[in-house]
Structures are given as structure tokens and as C-alpha cells.
């Protein structure tokens, strides 16, 4: 069975050649209840029921699918993580009183009993932080009218981790920055960002390694600023990064177009002819091909977005498509076949 | 102008998947004349005239084109070297009294005033040492009836270098041995050959490096054996090497077919998509593609032989096709374009 794509992977929205997605996440907890890691089984079960009831009342407006995670298979849970609809933390064993509500377009997800009692997340394609914030705020208001949030005049929303105190808001964007990496400017740009409270992480890499030149850029603190200020600040910072990436792309096109076209061509050639491929290599080559597409250096059409193709490299995608678990070698073979078939547009 | 191919590059003949070509070369000198490196201008000019006259008398039978090398452009001279029709030594500056006679199929070449006064070479596709020897012997007899060869009862034919004394015969085969290299057996096989008087050289590499896994295997001494014995010995040795290469190919197909198919696919993908390519990389990838073709692992048809494609990587081929000298960068670009176009069968 081929997994379907989330709406945020469609590559639409402003600046979508560089901004793969925009995300807003709100952390909320119930008054008078211990945080999830300190709850008893009865407390967790009770809270899940209360929150579930409130979320289900939203359903008429949002067409939300509500699932207890202990009733979802491990590979489906991993698929949700790789679509960024739930956090890796939510699917760690043992899973007992956790749940997630997801809308049909997979733009909205509401996690229950993760680090906080409630996390509301909105994920949109391109640079749409403000739009995502408005959707999250509407859902938050609707739930707040049905639930008793833990809120303190001085600290704002109370959260399990102090870094989320205040607005409980984390805003982030997922950026494809191949030209900043190729021109060796990425480290310098990210150091400057750290000084203004912006965190940059590689998306799929261990530690600071950014596979596929994909970076997640987010606000570090949520205390002392309004939600609108946080969203506005990150939007401005993102626009600055986009400007730097565009400059770097223009420089490469002016100074090294032949070498760039060679790099893009080779990446396409390998992706459409290899028989075995690791995830790390696939993301590296897809980044090159995607950059080539953006700069009109790619001779073939690119029938899927970078976000969709990157999703196809993930083990849970491949195991879902295969219909059974795969050994590491079989997975590398399935990955090569899947990317090849999809890039050549042979089938969905 | 696209250079044409020599007959030996056609990939016909026995064992042609492994034996690119078979070569016989006879060294002959005229009695009572100094060797070429000791001749005066007058002596060299006179000898060139005498030998030319004898060679031209062969023309009715052989359709031989006779050229003084000082009347051939440097790029054309280099093209003759890369077709293996003349030795690199023959085209070294200054060129004054040297000449070469070549038949229409470019199987026969007769060099005048190289290291020896006369070198008769016959080059055929596949394993055809005996056939090549018979052609060379016929030409040798025809010339000997018109010229006064330096011959000594004890030493045989007198030659400028002692290693050519005796029969003056050098037999060699050009072999494509990718599986022996991949399975790391090549060094061991070549060491064993050295012990029975067989020399192995990389064809296009510096020193012992064999670009494209192409090796030239030849007899080391020509004294103390008859011509027939030399030709027979090298044929037997070549058949043994072929057997080892076939075993190694079978082993790879049985034990590592997926990895081999991956290697072949990637080589094809890069060759048909790169925009810049060095000669060393091109030969390495062409070797992989050629092996893939031999083992039916290549999905696309291979419209040219390995020998033809290897010839296309050479600077003189590319400069002839371009019609003007090329910088190193332009050559790497022209090489990538040329190989791509020919592999995709877009044109001759």
C-alpha cells in the first residue's frame, strides 16, 4: 500500500522552492493535573477521555480523525513521525494513554499526553507561519472553551518543560539550503541566528548533520513575547535566510554553472539507475536534483516535490509500500527502486 | 570531423568480450646501415626513400596509404598513436625522416625510422594472434624480397634494442579484466605471468595503473624461440587469463549480482548525465558499463564497443571532433557530451 502525502508536502505556498513547510505548535496542560510523566494510569486515562471528548466536539468543523496510539501499528506510528504529524516522543514504547487527532489534509494534529497534556500543531506548505498561527489559535480557543487550561498570570501557560513556558508556542520552518551549504556559508549564517535566539537543526541527521541540506529553524524561547511577535520574528528571520540562499544560488549560477549542472546531472543519473541506496545518499542526491529543478538545470521533469521524495526515502514509507518489514539490505534496494520509478514518472 | 574507427575496434573475433585486440609487431633493419638514432640526415632520407619504394610496391595488393609524418598535423599524429597504429616514439618531435604506411582497414601499419628502420604491425580484433602473425609474415616476406635485411645466423634479425633480437617479434593482446580487478586477483595473476616471461602493462595508465581495467599482455623476449612458438605461447597464456576472468565474472554474478548491477547502473547513469568528465573517470565507468553489457546487467543497448568508446575519451579524438584544440576544461566537457550522445545512440 502506497502511503499518501500530507498537504504540507505539496510544494505550494510562498517561497516553496526554499521553505518546505511552516509549523506552529502550542503546548497546553490541564489545571490541577500532574504533567504526563508524573501521572498515574487512572489520571492519564481520565485526561485522555476528557481531552478526547473536547477534540471530538471539534470534528464537525475540522473533520478530525481521532486515534489512540496503542491501536495503531508500529509502522503506522513511525509513518506519522516521518510526516511530522506526531513527535518521536509520542510513539516511544510503552504506549498506553496517548492519542492523536489529525485532520483529513494532515495539516492539523492534536497530540494528547505527549510531554504536555495537549499539543496543537498546524503544518502548512511554504512560508505560512502567520496562516498556521491563525488556524492553531482558532483551535486553541475552541478547546479552551471546553477544557480548563493551566495558566498563570506571570508565567503564562504552564508547560512540562520550562522552555515552553509563556505562550507555549514553538514556531518553526523547514528550509532547503543547498547553496548556502555548497558555498560554505551555512555555519556562519547559523551562528549569527543563534545570537538572536533562533535554533537551527538538521532535520534527518544526527546532531548537527543536515541530510539533504534540510534545516529546521525555530524560536528558542516563548516567554516574554506575544505569539504575534514570535511568529513575526521568525518570518522575518526566514526571509533573511531565503535572501542569503537566493544570493548563493545566483552566485553559483554565475560562477560555476557547468559544475553545478554536472552535479545535478550526475545526481539524476544515479537516482534513476542505482539498484541499492542508503537513506543518506538518497537525500543528498535528491537535494542536488531539487536544486537543479529550482534553477532549471534539470533536463527531465520532476514529477514529485522534494518533500514528497524525501518522505519516500524513509523506512516506514518503504515498509508500508512493501506491506511487510524489510531488512536493511532489502530497504536499500526498495528505496532505489521506489525513487527510480517515481522520478521517471512511471507510476504513483 | 568525427574520426573513424579502426577495424580492430569492432569487437568481432573470438573471445572479443575480453580480448579487445591482438597485435603482432616485427622489427627489421637494413644491412650496412646505422640504426635510426645514429643516422645522418642523408642516410635517414635515403633509407626512407628505399623503404618507401618497397612498401609502395605492396600497394596494389594491400591498398596501403603511405604518409611522411612531417606532413601530418600533430593532432592527426596523436590520433594514430591512440589508434595504436604508430608508437608514441614515432611522433615525438623533431619529426623528419619518419613515415608510416597504413592499410584502409587500419589493421596493418608499417613504421619507417622509428627505433628500428622498419616495424611491421598487424592489429586484429579479438584473440587472433595466429591470424595476425600470418598477415605480418606475408608482408615481411614481400618486403624482404625487395630490401636487404640485417640478419645474423646466431642473433637472428638485428635490432636497435637487444630485447628485440632473434625473431624481432613482439606479440601482445589487449585485455579487459574488470572481474579480476574487482575480486582483487589481478596482481596475483600478473605475478605468476612474470615468472613465465610475460609482461603485463596498464594500457592508458601511468606505470602500473590500468585505467579502464585494460591491460596489455606481451612476450618479453623474442630470442631462442620460433615465431610460431612465441605466438602459440602467448595464445595459451591469454586463454588461461580469459578462463580466470570468466571464473571471476561468474563468481561475482553468483555472490554479488545486486551490487554489480548497482555499480553498472550507476556508471551508466553518470555517463549519460554528467556534463564534465576526466579521461580517468570515463574509462573507469566505461569499464563498468562494458562489463554490465557482457553480463546482461545493462538495461540499455550499448551502441558502440568498449574499444570504440575508450577511443572517444582520448584528447586527439575529441580535438578532431571539435575541429580545434581544446583546453583541459573544454576537453572534459566535450568528453562528457560525446560519450553521452554516443551511449544514448543519438548520432554517430
UniProtKB/TrEMBL annotation, chains A, B:
Annotated GO MF terms: ATP binding; creatine kinase activity; protein arginine kinase activity
One GO term describing the cellular component: extracellular space
Domain spans labelled Phosphagen kinase C-terminal: 18-248
Keywords, sorted A to Z: Allosteric enzyme, ATP-binding, Kinase, Nucleotide-binding, Transferase
The organism's place on the tree of life at top rank: Bacteria
Short motif (RDXXRA motif of the pArg binding pocket involved in allosteric regulation): ranges: 331-336
Its biological purpose: Catalyzes the specific phosphorylation of arginine residues in proteins.
Name of the protein in its database record: Protein-arginine kinase
Organism (species): Sulfobacillus acidophilus (strain ATCC 700253 / DSM 10332 / NAL)
Gene: mcsB
